[in-house]
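Table S4 entry, arginine--tRNA ligase.
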Amino acid sequence: MRLPRTLIPYRYKLALVSSVHRLFQASKQFLSFPKARIPAGRFPQSKIQYQNRLFHATRYKMAATEPLTTYQSSFSLPSLLKVPETDPSACVLDSFRIAIAQLLSDALGLDLEKAYNGVDYGKKGEDFTVALPRFRLPGKVNEVAQKVIDKFSPNEYIESVVADKAFLHFRLNTPNMIRAVLTQVHELTHVVPAQQAASSSSSAEPEGIYGTNKLGAGKKVIVEYSSPNIAKSFHVGHLRSTIIGAFLANLYKASGWEVISMNYLGDWGTQFGLIASGYEKYGNQEKLEADAIKHLFEIYVQVNKDAETDPTVKETAAAWFKRMEDGDEAALANWRVWRDLSIKKYVQEYERLNVQFDVYTGESEVSKSSMDDALERLEKIDLVEESNGAKLLNLEQWKLGKAVVRKKDGTSIYLTRDIGGAVERYEKYKFDKMIYVVASQQDLHLAQFFKVLELMGYEWAQPKNASLVHVNYGLVQGMSTRKGTVVFLNQIIEEAANVMHEQMKTNEEKYNAVENPVETAREIGITGVKIQDMAAKRINNYTFNWDRMLSFEGDTGPYLQYAHVRLASLDRKNPHLLPLPAPSALALDLLAAPHTSQQARDIAFLLGTYPDVVKTALKTHEPSGVVTFAFRLAHAISSAWDAVVVKSLGEDEREKAQARLFLYGCARDVLGSALRLLTIRPLERM
């Protein structure tokens, strides 16, 4: 399709030209940006995606393959000593924390890095807090605190220090914090990507990189997730793995890793013997061509029903699968067609969810030789024992029970295929980490699987390397239609879209302004599904709740979309303030007291924390932290809406109005980035 000419909002077009030129000329000695690349096949297919690319960049993709090498902000503060694992060029609040650490180091004789690690984000309105007892210093804690206060004098980083029992609370220099944060958000979202694009021969559009980091630069990770069974519609049971896995893929890309998103299909096993034998009896070519997934599922249900009264059905199915494992071409021909049709259907489902895979593989692609080699290796280390003709692994000394690795008829089982597949993947990709996104119900299987690879002696599988990771999650309870019937995912999405569409129609003026209301309603519904899933810790079970999921009130997906749309509307409502000057020419001091209420400062500080939110999520593999950040930002915006107004300011307060519009624009950029990290497409109208 034809791509939009620009991703930069009109509000920044003229300012951006001068900003890019000035930043490039002033920073040649500091800047070393690699060329931008976007993976093929990732361009938008809908009007909503088109609009989103017109106004915003997807913040994480480019950073995954082309991490930021060096960046020098156009707003500079006094230089500071460097602290390991900090990067003020990606998170400007790091520099403020270093300034606090330097004060602690000077006043208390602490090592700078140790002091830095003691500086935490504050609570209840405090910027940063230090718990003094953690340093285990001699003397009374109030005397230690007084040493810091005596050493302190206000500077360009720190405005005040307050002792509170065993704690010290630090408030940052408000004007400098606001300008430093907003400048960095703007430049890493718009200026630097545009500069990269200008020096690149690529036709790909520039993409914002605020919130990204380089922690995984030079490393490769495989994220295996979703993994539905072919010849079946996408069931809601696969939804959590898909949502969490896609988030992790985005998260690792945002952290500089080379990411391979892998869908390991359930495309092998006795169940396909059932379908194959059932197809001979119930198959219909016309129905297959009309809707292959639906027809094959109908066959699967019918043949299982037959098996309840006829024991020979499963025997026939097992014999059929044995023929497939032996490579009988007649037995494999239909299976190949069903597999291809299933993948095509899944690609459509994933596109609606804004999920893409780099590799579609499956149990069928694990070679027999790999499985045989694995079994032979296990027998050599005396882990295999026989039971009624089947072969089992005895892992009881590690409190992992016993596990079948080969059935009595000689066919493979999924543990054997997992082992062979892992070995083949390492040989092919030489990954640094491989993540399996699988429900907590499979905790024992994954523990057995990882232990077996460890015992087989593979260096990459040793626990010390932490290269094999199981990201587990709890169950979705009560996920059904509003009428109570258990359904497939497409039914959930369509029902959510219909409810949202009806709600949108209640405001005729806004409804008429939306270019594609049906598609917009679907995006809101999908957002509701995803946010409800990711809002709590992933290990927790949760009950699917239609009313909560689709509400515009409270912490819901529609509420986040509404917050983003609200921010996007400000440019449309204030064309007289556009285009905005470059950040250096904006009167951002007017965002601080007494010119503007505290809410503006709260928003700016919150925006500055976003890079750390991403880093924390990388450590925990929890999407809930990013969801919580998005809600906090949306709440801060809502709180500021009436106190930090833009439109009602007169021409004599134009500078203040432009500064506020810039603040809200940066908030829109960061909220959009957080939503994209969560695989959600931010909307411009709804």
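The CA atoms of residues 100 and 221 lie 36 Å apart.
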